[in-house]
Amino acid sequence: MTDILIETDDRSRVVLPGHPNRLFLLRDNGDGSLLLQPARVVNEAQHQYDSDPELRALLSEAAA
Description:
This protein is an alpha+beta fold. It contains 2 helices and 2 strands. It has a two-stranded antiparallel sheet with strand order 1-2. Strand 1 (24-28) and strand 2 form a beta hairpin.
């Protein structure tokens, strides 16, 4: 693991070297540490499809 010093600008922005155009969820922990987790945003319909095996099977049948 390589340590990298990150500095915010006057608008609280940072540059994360090696992670261009990525989306992260920021968790501000009570101890002052910050946790960045890679994130993606999906609409409700996609979430339902991803989380419901019966729905996927039904839609696969309908498409076939």
